[in-house]
Here is the input.
Amino acid sequence: MPVWSDIKAEKIPRLIIPHIIVLELLEDNDFYYRLTGTKIDEYMGFTLQGYRLSKAPFRDDNKISQAFHAVVEAKEPQYSDFPLGTKVTGFGKTERVIAPMSTTGQDVNMLIGAVVYSAPTDPYTRKFYTR
Here is the structure.
């Protein structure tokens, strides 16, 4: 499993960077969005960076939490795809590959991955979410 300090942004293909997501596993088993790519922010209508998963405005954060915890438990990359909507976007298909990561090389305490969204069902009704 990669160690966060070993990740070199310049080595990540440019086409992937807008789809990158980096999360930190918190002591209370919630996740904290440390980094979200511009395509993720564009789809959401706001940036998830700085949010805890439990406080993010998803319509179904349970599925997302289960997908993230599956990576932590398995200690290996996982693929998932299910429709995802937020309080500001309609449901669109979401595909993600999430991999375990560590700050120490021992325990999974971070996740890194790529997320790709299809268009929301009604992109013209999108509103921006304010914190």
Remarks:
- The helical segments are 38-44, 61-74.
